Please model this.
Amino acid sequence: MSKDPAPEGGVDGKALAKPRPGFFSDRRGSTVIEFALLAMPFALLVFAILESCISFAGQEVMANITDDVARQLRTGQLRRANVTQDSIKQLICDGMAIIVTGNCFQRLQVDLREYPTFADAASASFKIVDGQIVLTQGTNSMTVGVSPGLAESKNMLRVFYKWPVMTDFLAKQMANIDGDTLHFASVTWQNEPFDDN
Model:
């Protein structure tokens, strides 16, 4: 009887171990490593897109409600005697309730004033100084106020809302005022010839 041949390259019936490939040529577990490398950037991208979309929706809702309030002022539905800072804020916060949860009243600033000409209204601006909104008219600073005009007067309504940034890691990139994003809407119009009484 013949003896079984020794395994290839083996001595005394023992097989030689295959040479181990190098670390970079070993493909076992590569999917896990690739996922680990891509998961964080992908999650950051998804959260950035969601944060931006929600912020944009909030800005659009605020712009729409600002237009609605300006229309009510322009047509005389809101009477000058009944218009106060709080009443305008309440109208805007009620309209934004669909997307803003709490403390809308504290985060909102409203400026409504009459201007002699549209050119004067166009020169009105604002800047952010030490985390505060400062209204300007040319080179002069003004305080926020509400003083609507009479029939056929030229008016401008400016609305500022400090939108909270929800994801902490985006706060530095998106925030421009006290850790929040400033949303702004402005409407300029001439009142219709309604009865002032």
Notes: Helices lie at 30-75, 85-96, 104-107, 118-122, 171-174. The longest helix spans residues 30-75.
